[in-house]
Amino acid sequence: MTASFLRTGLFLAGLAGLLATTAAQGAEAYPDKPVTLVVPTAAAGGTDTIARLVADALGKSLKQPFVVDNRPGANGILGTEQVARAAPDGYRLLFTYAAAMVVNPSLYRKLPYDPVKDFAPVAQIGRGGNLLLVRNDLPVKTLADFVAYAKARPDKLSYCSWGNGSGGHLAMESLKKQAGLVIEHVPYKGSGPCVQDLMGGQVEAAFADMSSTVELVRAGRLRALANSGPSRIPMLPEVPTMTESGYPFTTYAWYGVLAPAKTPPAIVKKLNEAVNRALRDPAVVQRLRELNFTDLPQNTPEQFAATLRQDLRDWGALVKDIGLQPE
């Protein structure tokens, strides 16, 4: 009986070693064909812009094309669910924004994915906030002006965001609650269409991502009143944070790459290393700075997973504080 157990133990040890060797060889060969990077927003917005920059850098680093596939809809749910159900082989990944992962669980009773159980976090990309923008013809120049203007016109103003529960939506709802404002929310499928309608006069204000709007502000096509991040940004140093302006906001946004759960850890590690190499590349860093990404943490998958879990708690508390009800 002892000999039988010994033989079984040796067999299992050998099998484990074989599987480990096979997995390592598989990761070494990965990727050996194009990789799809699903972006759960419309093209031309901030998420899409950063995703294409990262996809290009990953393609050069790993010697295979990383192809961006825009799957907008339902506040990021459609594209996110698709990746959650994809084969865990590293060939279909998610490039997403924080709210789709850490806010949606508080907004939807029947979310078709679990941000912790259904995904393997790969790498966090950037950390920061969004700009509070208004139309140029709105007679306000500061956040205090905007609050006074909106208070004098209850139910007369509207603002857009890139979806219910998005960072832009929650930042404005936080401002509305703190200042006692009544402003209608108009959700869009992406930041790009929202900003276009803001410039076109269909809405009066928006919290929108910095990467695609700073140049519009500098060109005089939109006016920035505040940003929801932790600090002022170098490209618009005159624009204060919400907290500086008297309306504290301390929950910040990020972008990230995630793989389906059960993706081999060796592949996750290889992707993480490739993303972090890109974040050290002077050309990539320069482009990210031009897009106002100045905070670029280089985290391990485990550190990104910890950020994900913490933000689920923090954003969930914000949703509860604002009083948004799950759908």
Keyphrases for this structure?
single chain; 327 residues; 10 strands; globular
Number of DSSP E strands: 10
Q: Low-confidence spans: pLDDT under 50, at least 5 residues?
A: none
Order of helices and strands: HEHEHEHHEEHEHEHEHEEHHH
Gap between N and C termini, in Å? 60 Å
Secondary-structure-based class equals alpha/beta
Largest sheet: 5 strands, mixed
Count of helical segments?
12
Biggest sheet strand order reads 2-1-3-10-4
Global Rg: 22 Å
Mean pLDDT over the full residue set:
89
Overall helicity: 40-55%
Q: Label the overall shape.
A: globular
Percent strand: 15-25%
What can you tell me about this protein's structure?
It contains twelve helices and ten strands. The protein starts with a helix and ends in a 5-residue tail after the last helix. The protein is an alpha/beta fold. It has a five-stranded mixed sheet with strand order 2-1-3-10-4, sandwiched between helices. Strands 7-6-8-5-9 form a five-stranded mixed sheet.
Concise overview:
This protein is of the alpha/beta class. The chain has helices at residues 2-29, 46-62, 77-84, 98-102, 104-107, 143-151, 167-179, 191-200, 214-218, 265-278, 282-290, 301-322, and strands at residues 35-39, 66-70, 92-97, 119-128, 130-135, 158-161, 184-187, 205-209, 222-227, 253-260. A five-stranded mixed sheet has the order 2-1-3-10-4, with helices on both faces. Strands 7-6-8-5-9 form a five-stranded mixed sheet.
What's the topology here?
Blueprint: H1 2-29, E1 35-39, H2 46-62, E2 66-70, H3 77-84, E3 92-97, H4 98-102, H5 104-107, E4 119-128, E5 130-135, H6 143-151, E6 158-161, H7 167-179, E7 184-187, H8 191-200, E8 205-209, H9 214-218, E9 222-227, E10 253-260, H10 265-278, H11 282-290, H12 301-322
Parallel strand pairs: 1-2, 1-3, 6-7, 6-8
Antiparallel strand pairs: 3-10, 4-10, 5-8, 5-9
Helix pairs in contact: 2-10
